[in-house]
Automatic annotation (TrEMBL):
Pfam families: GDP_Man_Dehyd. The lineage of its organism: Bacteria, Pseudomonadati, Pseudomonadota, Alphaproteobacteria, Hyphomicrobiales. It catalyses: GDP-alpha-D-mannose = GDP-4-dehydro-alpha-D-rhamnose + H2O. InterPro entries: GDP_Man_deHydtase, NAD(P)-bd_dom, NAD(P)-bd_dom_sf. SUPFAM superfamilies: NAD(P)-binding Rossmann-fold domains. Keywords: Lyase, NADP, Nodulation. Residues 17-343 form the NAD(P)-binding domain. CDD domains: GDP_MD_SDR_e. This is GDP-mannose 4,6-dehydratase. The gene is gmd. HAMAP family: GDP_Man_dehydratase.
Length: 364
């Protein structure tokens, strides 16, 4: 795909600002944009978080990025950063991203995810940057709520089930409003789940890949999970950040569902992941007494913990990304089996040589 310059962007070295650069997608996107010759600025919410992120993909790129410490709730600092950086492209990836946390702290989630997006858009207009800066908003398939109609696309009615989903709906609508009312080039990506070896361990896929790697090293404690039959449309983060970039290279802003068009259960993820280390799981019992047992040794590998069930959870997501395919020429390249394998192998490698990984990051 050829690089398409914006009509009003500098011919060389476009400038991008990524909020949430220390997160999973922030690292992949920074890497993509650096590879395309961008000058990349990133917002990180506190200096201490930068150190915590040293094993993220972001950590490996850190020396090549311009970093600004700023919380999305701090409008004054946001304004200063935008005034100084004058980005051609803004990717708003920062968010409180955990559904369960949003149930525990809905006000904070709304402040960061919904009001934070409005703050950024408002500052863009206040600074008169609306013709200079294009804006990508990371929205979520969570806005669809329970799968009343699948596959879900840009026309599916919104039915958020939790404060995280409601905050992402508000951010989505703010981007549409600013686009219509002020002419800001603002586009929403309605992102279905996407994972990678840089996923936070609090999400189920990474929790599983870490447990499989630990099991391979002799760990005997079973992996505790909630609803094994929840189904997700799981893709690879690297594919999704490519679509974010493509969305900002279009002539006109628009909203796109980004999804693989396949749905798999947590149970399937577990089976494939343990399969990477040669374990075949047999399921015994039912309900909260269900257990996943190694077919060869009889060892219990998986157990159910009701604490990991959610009061309101989208039981299944399945996206229809045909608009992105037709208009962006985007299609995901990494399939489900390869995603699972990559995550498990990465955790096996990290556990085998943690000091080597540390040395590599320290020398950057
Ligand atoms: P992560 O949870 O990995 O990263 C979230 C980022 O937001 C981190 O850099 C985090 O900083 C930052 N952040 C959190 N709170 C604040 C705050 N108050 N001020 C400034 N920064 C903050 O998420 P992903 O990379 O996976 O997701 C990127 C975006 O895409 C998010 O908006 C998410 O909601 C959305 N999305 C992701 C999907 C997925 O499956 N990955 C699917 C649908 C939507 P710190 O490192 O300090 O914690
Ligand atoms: P999700 O991701 O809520 O879809 O949000 P998560 O990996 O947390 O859950 C996926 C499904 O797995 C079920 N599940 C468990 N989940 C966790 N975290 N831990 C468990 O032990 C467990 N057992 C079963 C969940 O109930 C759920 O059905 C992600 C985030 O990236 C959001 O920011 C993003 O918007 C959505 O994806 C699309």
């Amino acid at each position: 795909m050829a690089f398409v310059e914006h009509s009003n962007a500098p011919v060389e070295a476009p400038v991008a600002l990524i909020t949430g650069i220390t997160g999973q997608d922030g690292g992949y996107l920074a890497e993509l944009l650096l590879g395309k010759g961008y000058i990349v600025h990133g917002l990180a919410r506190a200096p201490a978080r930068l150190d915590r992120a040293r094993f993220s993909r972001f950590g490996e790129l850190r020396g090549r990025l311009h970093l600004h410490v700023c919380d999305l709730r701090d409008g004054d600092t946001l304004e200063n950063v935008l005034r100084v950086v004058r980005p051609n492209e803004i990717y708003n990836l920062a968010a409180q991203t955990h559904v369960q946390t949003s149930l525990e702290d809905p006000a904070y989630t709304t402040d960061v995810n919904a009001a934070g997006t409005v703050r950024l858009l408002e500052i863009l207009v206040k600074l008169g940057h609306e013709r200079h800066s294009r804006f990508f908003q990371a929205c979520s398939s969570e806005i669809f709520g329970d799968a009343r109609g699948v596959p879900q696309n840009e026309k599916t009615p919104l039915h958020p089930l939790n404060p995280y989903a409601a905050s992402k709906r508000a951010a989505f609508e703010a981007a549409v409003h600013f686009r219509n009312a002020t002419g800001v080039f603002a586009s929403n990506g309605i992102l279905f789940n996407h994972e990678s070896p840089y996923r936070s361990p609090s999400f189920v896929t990474r929790k599983i890949s870490l447990a499989v790697a630990a099991s391979q090293r002799g760990e005997k404690t079973p992996l505790s999970l909630g609803n094994l039959d929840a189904r997700r449309d799981w893709g690879h983060a690297g594919d999704y950040v490519r679509a974010m970039w493509l969305m900002l290279q279009r002539e006109k802003p628009d909203d796109f569902v980004l999804a693989t068009g396949e749905t798999h259960s947590v149970r399937e993820f577990v089976e494939l992941a343990f399969g990477v280390i040669g374990s075949r799981i047999i399921w015994e019992g039912s309900g909260v007494r269900e257990r996943g047992v190694d077919a060869a040794s009889g060892q219990v590998l998986v157990e159910i913990d009701p604490a990991f069930f959610r009061a309101a959870d989208a039981g299944m997501t399945l996206g229809d990304a045909s608009k992105a395919r037709a208009e962006l020429g985007w299609r995901p390249e990494v399939g489900f089996e390869n995603l699972v394998r990559e995550m498990v192998m990465a955790d096996i490698e990290r556990m085998a040589a943690p000091s080597e990984a540390e040395a590599r990051v320290a020398s950057d």
